[in-house]
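User: Predict the structure for this protein chain, please.
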Amino acid sequence: MTTIPEVKIFSKPKKVCEAVAREILKLTQESPQKRFDVALSGGTTPKKLFKILAAEFSAEIPWERIHFWWGDERCVPPQDDESNFKMTDEFLFAKIAVPKENIHRIKGENIPEVEALRYADEIAQNLNYRGENPVFDLIILGLGEDGHTASIFPDQIELFENENICAASQHPITGQNRITLTGKVLNNASRVFFLVTGANKALRISEIMNDDEAAKLLPAYYISPKNGELIWYLDEEAASRIS
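Assistant: Here is the predicted structure, written as structure tokens:
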């Protein structure tokens, strides 16, 4: 981890998500650009974030300016309960006035390698570039107990050097196929927000924040935007082992 991250710690998960929601409101209202491209994450904490955005900010955020993408997706149909898209659709899109053309779904029902190429092409046609890679205004990431982020797992750290925008990956235990943004795209974002809550994430957080040798085995350790900011939003339980 070469970028010096900002770390914000809150008393409980709801406070974490409220802070991120307020920051999204600020960013989308103040951005000089007509559009704002954000890549979303799946998981329990983003679900809380989506609920708050829909319930408390639906009338304030300029949804028509925001284009929604995903950092990763499970290779399942969009109606499957494991679909990151389904979760976002249920808890956010169904409750806000966002144009359908602003929602850029990873088609998890397609052949993984084929869909990785198709989604990469859609990103390339829509986003601005910085250097050789597309630029997301914001990427929201989570952290797995094994240290993975997006769908880059500890046995696939080479995806940080992959030349493509997207790649097919595989969960090392279940064998489930995934599609993920590669490390070069993740690290080309203008902003990366990690949302991490819970005591079960405390060990990995401490390894990363304390720059332990063990952290070098964790994909999340290598998230380091070259031309952007990195902010970790943590609750007290997740931050409890930072020295």
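The radius of gyration is 17 Å.
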